[in-house]
Amino acid sequence: LILLHLSVFAQPATTAGRLSSTYLLSSVVIEGETNINGFTFSFENSKININPEQSKLIKELTHNEIVEFYIPVRAFRGSNSLMEEDFQSILKADTYPMVRVGIEKQKLNSIISENNDQPLNFYLTIAGVTKKISGNYQISVCNKDELILQGTTHVKLTDFSIIPPKKMLGVLYVKDVIFIKFDIIISTLNI
Hints:
- The protein is mostly beta strands and 191 residues long.
- Helices cover 14% and strands 47% of the residues.
- The strands form two sheets. Strands 1, 2, 3, 4, 5, 6, 7, 8, 9 and 12 form a ten-stranded mixed beta sheet that branches.
- The chain is elongated and about 55 Å long.
- The model is unreliable at 1-19 and 47-57 (pLDDT under 50).
């Protein structure tokens, strides 16, 4: 069981209604469980400037514009360096140094303009494998120009071709299910 918590605040385009929205990745917290205990990894974006980028691969697959964030795997911090090394190894950081999260800009804009109960679909790339994920979300208003989208979903490590690791001849093992909780702060400015 791993909980991935994303706080996203990003930079984007002007919509037809002359509404401009910005997003910037703020922090990520990953909590996981083994059959014996739990562990936590965290990422803070205060020292690394992550700007959203457009992914040609995802755009070709969806024909939609995607707001995408690259999260450096090696920027996650755990309670000790051995756990960090194991985490980086599990996510194949040498070959795939970034976790990618992509959300269709059209979906983000519709969330801003109309709060509906449709599932939030987004793309998650871990260890070079991209999956379309569906999650639930709730919108909260911070002030007249800021919204918080809080979402939840779950995936399996094996869906991303990651074999949950085992230690001590299999006595200690990581559970396969990953629970993801994310916050997206959407700043809207009427122009």
